[in-house]
Structures are given as C-alpha cells and as structure tokens.
Amino acid sequence: MRLKVNGKEVEAKEGALLLEVAPVPTLCHHPHTETRGVCRLCLVEVNGRLAPACATEVREGMEVRTDTEGLKALRRTLLEWLALTTDLSLAPGLLGLMAAYGAEPGRWKEAPSRRGRPPIRDNPFFLRDYAKCVNCRRCVDACGDGIMGVYALTLAGRGLQAHPTTPLDRPLPETPCVFCGNCVQVCPTGALRPLALEVG
Amino acid sequence: MEQPSLLPLLDERLPLTEEKVAEAARLAGVPLAQAWGVVAYYPRYRGLPQGRLLVDDPVARARGFSRLREEAEGTYPPLGLEALSPVYLRFTEKGRFLEWEGRWVPFREFRLPFALGRGHGLLPPEPAPTLAQYLALGGLGGLRAWKGGLLDPGKVLKAVEEAGLLGRGGAAFPTHVKMRAVAQGQAPKYLVVNADESEPGNFKDRFLLEHHPFLVLEGALLAALAVGASRVYLYVREEFEAAILGLERAIRELEEAGFLFVPTEVFRSGGLYICGEETALLESMEGKRAEPRLKPPFPVERGLWGRPTLVQNVETLANLPLLLREGPEAWRRKEPKLFSISGDVARPGLYELPLGTPLGEALRRAGGEPEALQAVLLGGAAGVFTRDWDLPLAYGGRLPLGAGAIVAFGKDVDLWEVLEGLAHFFQEESCGKCFPCPLGTAVQVGMVRRRERDPSLLQDLAATLRGSLCGLGQSAFWAYRSLLEVEGAA
Ligand code: SF4
Ligand code: SF4
Ligand code: SF4
Ligand code: FES
C-alpha cells in the first residue's frame, strides 16, 4: 500500500505501524511489551490529526507529517519537562534528543520534581532508582501481560506522582518476582539497573 | 455485575487491610498487583480526608478563596453545588455531611433544592421520586408503547436520527451513530449510563438523577432495547448518595410494575474526574485503574469486558422519552438543553433553554446583567473564559459548550485566582498515564501562580498538552489561553 510521508510517496506492508515508515523518536514503545501511545514523543500528523506512530497502522493514501512546527515544539517541550522533573543522567538517548531539539529546560523556571525519590535496593540483582523513572510502564508490562505473566510490578499514585511499585509495596524478594531481569532489560532510563554495574 | 468486579469487592471491605485486599483480588480473579494498583489509585481506598472541607469550585475561588479556606481543614473537588457555593462538608467517622441551612445533612439525604430547576419540557414541573408521581406527570409512554408493540428498535433509532440528538456530555457526538454501531454489534452488548458528572460548574445530571430518576431510567431502557443491550449499568458518581438510593428504589418499582425490560443496576463510580472519560469509566468497572484507553477501538466496538457498549450521558438519555412523545420534528424545533448557571447572577440554577440561545440572554434569564460582568467560564474546567454575550449557545460554534456550564464572574473577581483553582484541579485529576498531561498540568500550576503571560511559553504549553492521550490533558490549557484573550480584549 502507498502513503505519503512528509510529501514523499512510500510503500508499506499491510498491518505495518507508521513507526516503520516515519522517522520519529520513541520512548514508551517496545516491541516486546504492550506499552504504546503513552509518551507521545512519536506523535505525527495524519491528515492533519495527531496520532502516535507506534500505535497507528498504515492505511492506503494516508498523508503523514512528522516534523511540523507544532510537533517540533511538542517534542522539545516534552523533553524539557522530562529533564526538569526527572534525573536523565543514565538515559543517553534522551540526552541526545534534547540536544537535537535544542531543549532548554530552564525556560519553564519551576516544576515539581521526582528527583528526590530514594533508590530502592531490596534484592541482590538490581536497583530500583525511581528518581530516574519517566513512568513509561515498560517494566510493569514486561513483568505482566507483555512477557512474563508474573505480576510482581504495578503502578501506584496518579498524575506526576504515579510510579511503579510492587504488590503491597513489598521488597521484591517477597513478591512473585523470579529475577528474570526482563524489566531491567526494557527500562529506557537506567531507573532499573543491574547491581553488577554499580561500583562500591 | 455479570462478572465479579474489583471495586465493589473492595468497597464491601472498607476499611481495607492487606488481607482484605488480597481476598478481594482472589474473589475478582485478578493478580494482587492489579488490586494494589487500584488501591493506590482511587482516593477512597487510601482513606478520605476528615474534618471540615471547603468545596473548591470556581465560584468559591471567586468569593475570596483564601478567607473561605481558613475556615476549613481541607478542600474537596467540585460536587455539582456551584449554585449554592461556597459549601462546606463535614467528613467524620459517622459519615459524610453537607453543611446546609445550619444543619449537617448526610449525603444520602441531600438533594439539590428542586426550586433550582427552571424549565418544563425536559425538566420536571414537580419532583417525581415515585412511579405513581412519574405516571401522574404523563411518564412511561415510551415503555408502554414498547410493551404494546407500537415501538421497535428501528422506530427508536429513526426518531433519534431524525431529531439529530447530539450527546449532552460535552463531546456532542451524534447519538444515532453510536446507537446504530452498537445495534449492529454481536451480543452480548451493554448500555452504560455515564452519570459521573464531575466537570466543575455542571449540575444538570445530578439534578435529573435526584428529582427525575424514572425519566432517566425510561430513556436508558429505551436505548438499551433499541441497541439490543442485555444489561444496563448506571455509573453514578459515588458522592451522589441520595441519587443512588433513589435510582435503586426506582429500579425496584419498575421491576415490580413489569417495566424493567432489561436488567439494570447502579455502579458506584471510582470517585475521580477522569472516571467520566468513557474508556476510563469502563476500565474502572472492569476493576482497573481508571486510565483512558487508546482509541480506536471505540467502546461501540470493544467496550465493557471487550463487548460492544453504548456509553451515553444522563441528559442525552433523558431526552429520549420526550423526543418519542413529541416526535422528532417538534422536539427539534425547540431543542432543549440544560444549562447550569452559577456565580454572579441573581438566580443561579438549572435552566432549560433552546440550543442557540445567546449567552447574554441566558445570563439575563438567571438574573445576571452581562454588562456588569467581567466574563463567564463556559463549559467548566475544560472550558473557556469569554465575554462574547452574543455567542449563540449551540454545538459546533466558535466556542465549545461542554456540558452547558456557565459560571458568571463580576467585575471585582480576580479571574487569575479562579484560573489557579482550575489549574490545581487539572494537576490533581491527571491520571498520569501519558506524558504531556501530568507534566504539563504541573508546569501550568507554576505558570498560573506567577501570572505568566509569555506567549511563546503558552504556545508551547498548548502544543504539548494538545498531544495528550485523552480530553483531560488536551483541554487543560483552554481556560488559561482564553483568559489571556479576555484580558487582551478588556
Ligand atoms: S525481574 Fe522480577 S520484577 Fe522484573 S520482570 Fe522479572 S519477575 Fe518481573
Ligand atoms: S522503571 Fe524504567 S521501565 Fe519502569 S516505568 Fe520507570 S522508566 Fe519505565
Ligand atoms: S491526558 Fe491526562 S488524564 Fe488523559 S490519559 Fe493522559 S495523563 Fe491520563
Ligand atoms: S513511542 Fe509512541 S507514544 Fe511513546
């Protein structure tokens, strides 16, 4: 099937995601988990309407734009807000995007921060450092419906307070966790990271 | 419910312990992780605030909020009491009360004063809490016609289409399109009545539920029959306790009288603004965190438990009996719409007006003098400030009507203080699922507090919030942007 991306005709297979034909940054989408449509970094305009490229299938005759002024402002601003509220020091991909989009978090002056959250070290294998967590849910989905079906992770709170936690907020060894490491693998920000990489 | 649902199982076990949460999860057949996510989401499972609480609505914000706030130990989100605002609540071990005329009235007894309602088509000329009273007002004609074989699905759908009835919850989507989509779906199918009215400034559904339960039920049953739904759920804001008891009584009466053609029950809402978003509402019924789903698929295809589901607002359904009685032509000529008018007008209340009525005239009906006003907030928190008194109150116009809230502000009101309340509301009510909304609503609070007027910041705030997953985030900047426009015009 044929569609237009930024004015150029492209071919795509039936059932393909816009992501496969449109050059956009992504954050929450991961091929192995069910998370998609959450971060909104991959938004594109389809016939003038906003749609997440990670959750929209190609259609014959679609007119897709990936880089309108509005979309650039959206990505730049989102990155600024993430940097303002969250410790992105172990997320080189996001830091690279910030540079590419000319992000200047300081122009927003103030915002509540998630940086104060203390790291949780409750098992010998990995650290849960939610000061670095952007709440993309990849870990929750990896542990639950997406990969493992173990359900050792869930979400607590709402709004900017929402963050991953364990059932009854218990230390991981007291949950159904089997320490498979899938959540660590899918975490895009270094919020979950192997203790083997920590020095001291 | 047809399937065990987590929220009612948790409600039966309040106050919760870890053992009780685990037990509810087992009975609902869900992982403990899901149950814990739910407990850590809805306010009532973490324990409600106690003491004297000020209802923090836009009218209270306009009446010297900091002074009012000093008289209370905390605040509570808007409750459809704007016409009576400012209102204080008392939450104690004995229950929830409203301070009214020098008394503490329990929630289960408090209804909006009937005199607040002004209109005689859609609004009842007198309250009809019993079937006998509803019959005396000429009610039940639609269900009787159905019983007598004079009505069938085709006729109901045709009438709704000819009338051009648009959804009254805010989205103004053509009702017949949704109904037909569900009618064509495979059974089992459901009807969910969205009675989770929580948009600040609106109290129309609350009023209808409290004073005219049979009208709402008759409309719901007719819609359910027309689309072939096997069950009706009324998703009612859990604070509307008197309305819930009245509806449950009315359901029993209809059943005894042999008119409950589709099994019907009340579902107590999750108690958050976002629960009124139709897919978040369905998530909460399924025992999950009330977080909006990605659309498509839409509920008409995959709704409750993945089945085709018609989700309709209370006022939309309440129009069905009237529309069938008067015929689509006659109904359309006056197209009744309920407007919740509050704030700086002499007679705040609920006004039934034909769609298209100019804003200024609506205000005058409520004893307001447009020229003496600074602006109105039209639609609610997800609404706009305006002083366009000639604006016809119609769908598809220059400004969104929302569900029909009009909050009037006199010349002395500090609109920035009102806006601060709205910004705070959005920050509190953001579910946190997608990124732009929890971040943007938090940033917005700071901007409004420092009276930020930098157009480039506002433009980027708008461009980013617009990309949110659902209407809450998408509309969270409207009031802010419109206030700057009103300021510029003044
Ligand atoms: S390591 Fe534990 S928490 Fe992480 S995905 Fe595996 S089972 Fe789940
Ligand atoms: S811990 Fe990592 S994977 Fe999990 S939500 Fe946070 S950023 Fe995403
Ligand atoms: S816009 Fe706000 S309320 Fe809606 S899904 Fe996103 S975070 Fe939740
Ligand atoms: S990658 Fe598409 S919304 Fe996050």
UniProtKB/TrEMBL annotation, chain A:
Identify a single GO molecular function assigned to this protein: metal ion binding
Coiled coil region boundaries: none
UniProt-recorded name of the protein: 4Fe-4S dicluster domain-containing protein
- What is the originating organism of this protein? Thermus arciformis
**Protein keywords:** 4Fe-4S, Iron, Iron-sulfur, Metal-binding, Repeat
CDD domains, per database record: fer2
Domain of life assignment: Bacteria
Q: Does the keyword tRNA-binding apply?
A: no
Which residues are in the 4Fe-4S ferredoxin-type domain? 124-153, 164-197
Q: Which PROSITE patterns match?
A: 4FE4S_FER_1, 4FE4S_FER_2
Automatic annotation (TrEMBL), chain B:
TM ranges are none
The molecular function GO annotations come to: 4 iron, 4 sulfur cluster binding; metal ion binding
One family name in Pfam for this protein: SLBB
Q: Does the keyword Iron apply?
A: yes
In its keyword annotation, does this UniProt entry include Metal-binding?
yes
* Chain ranges of the NADH-ubiquinone oxidoreductase 51kDa subunit iron-sulphur binding domain: 416-461
Which keywords label this protein? Answer: 4Fe-4S, Iron, Iron-sulfur, Metal-binding
Q: Which InterPro entries match?
A: Nuo51_FMN-bd, Nuo51_FMN-bd_sf, Nuop51_4Fe4S-bd, Nuop51_4Fe4S-bd_sf, Soluble_ligand-bd
Xref: PANTHER family? NADH-QUINONE OXIDOREDUCTASE SUBUNIT F (PTHR43578:SF3)
The text of the family note is:
Belongs to the complex I 51 kDa subunit family.
Protein name per UniProt? NADH-quinone oxidoreductase subunit F
